[in-house]
Amino acid sequence: NAGVTQTPKFRILKIGQSMTLQCTQDMNHNYMYWYRQDPGMGLKLIYYSVGAGITDKGEVPNGYNVSRSTTEDFPLRLELAAPSQTSVYFCASSYSGSGGQPQHFGDGTRLSIL
Amino acid sequence: DQQVKQNSPSLSVQEGRISILNCDYTNSMFDYFLWYKKYPAEGPTFLISISSIKDKNEDGRFTVFLNKSAKHLSLHIVPSQPGDSAVYFCAAKEAGGTSYGKLTFGQGTILTVHP
Questions:
Q1: Which of B6, B50, B51, B89 has the greatest number of CB atoms lying within 10 Å of its CB?
Q2: Which residues of A fall within a CB distance of 8 Å from B3?
Q3: Each residue of A67-108: pLDDT tens digit?
């Protein structure tokens, strides 16, 4: 029972480099989300998707891009890495967006920009 | 503008006693509240939720209370166990189809349960 899988677990980038954080889920969930967590803070929503081909911005989307070509995968792209993007990134999925349906989280990607 | 606040960064309790974690919110459009537990180097794990039309929800050792007029909720853990030591996040979800299940999180409270 894999659930939500994120890769890589850790990464160090230089300023200006780009990378893609991978997220895949095997629960056939339509809804997927990307959050970032800074030290001592709660999780903040970067982007979300309600199905293949449909994405939208969350609270903190600047500097990021996403795509959703399949139900399973929801990669997050950093084009020009900046020190402010040093954070822990969590991907989540849920069966629906309504009611008390919980989101299921991956174990995160810890990203450092130096 | 923090819509969900957990004002206690940390809480320390003795094993077997009650742990009470608090959460306040400002947005009247929130219709569901969820509690997540997070261990180091892992993702948050769902614990329990409550609808805004209820004032209490119980699941085993975990009970969540909602005071809608005070815009306040709390998570009670009874009895507390050392394995409960983790960061606890309060999260809220807005009503309506256009919310798409987006969660707004509090800052988290670090719970330490001493044997």
A1: B89
A2: none
A3: 999 999 999 999 899 999 999 999 999 998 887 889 999 999
Residues of chain B that touch chain A, judged by Cβ-Cβ distance less than 8 Å: 4, 6, 9, 32, 34, 36, 41-46, 49-51, 89, 91, 93, 97, 99-108
Residue recorded with tokens 């299921």: A104
Angle at CA of residue A106, ends A1 and B93, nearest 5°: 110
Range of the domain at B45: 4-96+106-114
- Band of the pLDDT at B19, cuts 50, 70, 90? very high
Paired tokens of B92:
């809220």
In this complex, do A31 and B100 lie within 8 Å of one another by their Cβ atoms?
Answer: yes
| Domain housing A49 | 4-98+106-113
Q: How many domains does chain A have?
A: 1
